[in-house]
């Protein structure tokens, strides 16, 4: 039994051509989904990278693992998918990064928030230094700048870039030498060296996370003029009127992280810049798709495809200009909706191949799914549930009817704590509950929001203050409270100690 566990960074959930996307092309992931199960309503439980990956690797909601920012330590008492697999005799190895902030009470901290998930052997660690990739580029004769991240600067004076926007020019490196291709190269080398022994490989791609730059031929695979404009209010001011958090975020937002080596643009980005950024983002997605296809082709050529569980997902989404926003800090669907494809190689999954599941699934389901496939017991800490029954054509009864997510608004700037809107640290949490009709957003002290997802899928009209919807606000705030109460950490609460030993409620 092999496991290929892939996470892309900042990939919007609808950006798969099999789901009917109007522009992006992902033929290799489409083929994987045709041979597996695609989960159309899959959502991350947290944002940004560190909290989201903590949820996916531990199977826990953020209010249970409490690692709510990049840099918030994960309590060492919590187990994770790598630890559990390793304890059962498997050897999980890493290509890329996990962005886990380790507990300083138990571990020596070397990489800040970019720590390695305990139990995961980093065969090729690609953290913010990009050291092994940079070393490879030097061997190949690239003129590498002193700061590794400067390799993400686009080519200067690129022919045809005149009159184009800043993300049009391709990367300095070729597609064969990209960090995406590098990780696949390293994974293939490792798998090849196992000589038929079972393996567990976790690959974490950087793309399509900013900076928005991609090598040829992907930089112009999509014509900017054909790209739709972002979904947003006519002006940022009108967008900001929805909620104080949006007003604050839009005021603080810059375009500095979009490209490296290009001066920040005046905000907001122009329509032309927004279209080109979207075209580049789709190119980055297509590059990852091509490399996933190369890895799958290798597995097929070497008779491993039918012995390998393949899981493809992302950590969180990207606004891509919607609501005048970039990045992944908000309560909107663009933050939380992510792709999810599971290909179970066993004969039991044959009847469900090609299925598209429209039930709500969550990133906390990944750990139970992998452990279920490996025949490893799912620990009590997990809030998620295995998706293997969906892959076998037998969806579980009483499955969840909504997704749940959270993020924390506090942050850091130049090493200083930032508390927006005059909030205290414990007032910065935001919870989201969304079913097929309504989405409810709860702030600790700020006003809530309610959206009618059937009639307003773009989330432009906040109904929370509408007198006719006060009953719905009360109903969904009760649902939120009930979910929090029922999902509160219960690793030991199913036990009862007696003189006769341990009894269990469950």
Structure notes:
With 506 residues, this protein is an alpha/beta fold. The protein has 2 domains: 2-400, Alkaline Phosphatase, subunit A (3-Layer(aba) Sandwich), CATH 3.40.720; 409-489, Arylsulfatase, C-terminal domain (2-Layer Sandwich). It contains 13 helices and 17 strands. An 8-stranded mixed beta sheet has the order 5-4-6-1-7-8-2-9, sandwiched between helices. A 5-stranded mixed beta sheet has the order 3-10-13-14-15. β11 (411-413) and β12 (416-418) form a beta hairpin. The radius of gyration is 22 Å and the shape is globular. The two termini are 30 Å apart.
Protein traits:
506 residues, alpha/beta, Alkaline Phosphatase, subunit A, Arylsulfatase, C-terminal domain, 2 domains, five-stranded mixed sheet, 13 helices, 17 strands, 17% strand, globular
Number of strands: 17
Uncertain segments? none
How helix-rich are the residues, as a percent range? 25-40%
Radius of gyration: 22 Å
CATH topology of the largest domain: Alkaline Phosphatase, subunit A
By CATH reckoning, the class of the largest domain would read: Alpha Beta
- Let me know the largest β-sheet: 8 strands, mixed
Q: What's the average pLDDT?
A: 94
Structural shape: globular
Strand order of the largest sheet: 5-4-6-1-7-8-2-9
CATH architecture name of the largest domain = 3-Layer(aba) Sandwich
Number of domains: 2
């Amino acid at each position: 039994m092999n496991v290929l566990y892939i996470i892309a960074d900042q990939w919007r959930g609808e950006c798969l051509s099999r789901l009917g996307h109007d522009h992006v092309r992902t033929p290799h992931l489409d083929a994987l989904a045709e041979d597996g199960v695609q989960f159309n309503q899959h959502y991350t439980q947290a944002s940004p990278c560190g909290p989201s990956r903590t949820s996916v690797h531990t199977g826990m909601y953020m209010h249970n693992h409490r690692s709510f920012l990049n840099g918030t330590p994960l309590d060492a008492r919590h187990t994770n998918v790598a630890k559990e697999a390793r304890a059962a005799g498997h050897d999980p190895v890493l290509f890329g990064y996990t962005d886990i902030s380790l507990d300083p009470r138990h571990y020596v901290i070397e990489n800040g928030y970019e720590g390695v998930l305990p139990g995961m052997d980093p065969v090729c660690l690609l953290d913010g230094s990009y050291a092994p990739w940079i070393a490879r580029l030097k061997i190949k004769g690239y003129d590498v700048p002193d700061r590794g991240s400067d390799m993400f600067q686009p080519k200067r004076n690129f022919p045809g870039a005149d009159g184009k926007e800043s993300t049009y020019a391709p990367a300095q490196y070729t597609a064969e030498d990209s960090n995406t291709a590098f990780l696949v190269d390293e994974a293939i080398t490792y798998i090849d060296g196992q000589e038929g022994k079972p393996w567990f490989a976790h690959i974490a791609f950087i793309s399509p996370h900013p900076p928005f730059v991609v090598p040829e031929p992907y930089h112009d695979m999509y014509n900017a003029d054909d790209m739709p404009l972002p979904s947003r209010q006519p002006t940022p001011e009108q967008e900001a009127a929805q909620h104080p958090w949006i007003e604050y975020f839009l005021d603080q937002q810059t375009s500095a992280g979009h490209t490296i080596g290009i001066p920040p643009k005046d905000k907001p980005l122009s329509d032309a810049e927004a279209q080109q950024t979207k075209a580049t983002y789709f190119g980055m997605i297509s590059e990852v798709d091509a490399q996933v296809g190369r890895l799958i082709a290798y597995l097929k050529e070497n008779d491993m495809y039918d012995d390998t569980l393949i899981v493809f997902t992302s950590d969180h989404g990207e606004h891509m200009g919607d609501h005048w926003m970039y990045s992944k800090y908000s309560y909107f669907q663009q933050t939380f909706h992510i792709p999810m494809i599971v290909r179970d190689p066993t004969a039991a999954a044959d009847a469900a191949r090609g299925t598209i599941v429209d039930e709500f699934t969550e990133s906390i389901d990944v750990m139970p799914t992998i452990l279920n496939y490996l025949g490893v017991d799912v620990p009590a800490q997990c809030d998620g549930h295995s998706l293997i029954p969906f892959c076998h054509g037998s969806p579980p009864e009483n499955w969840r009817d909504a997704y749940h997510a959270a993020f924390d608004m506090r942050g850091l700037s130049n090493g200083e704590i930032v508390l927006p809107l005059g909030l205290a640290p414990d007032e910065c949490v935001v919870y989201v509950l969304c079913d097929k009709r309504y989405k409810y957003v709860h702030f600790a002290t700020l006003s809530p929001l309610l959206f009618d997802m059937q009639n307003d899928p773009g989330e432009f009209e906040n109904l929370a203050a509408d007198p006719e919807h006060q009953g719905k606000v009360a109903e969904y705030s009760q649902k939120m409270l009930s979910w929090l109460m029922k999902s509160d950490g219960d690793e030991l609460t199913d036990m009862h100690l007696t003189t006769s030993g341990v009894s269990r409620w469950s």
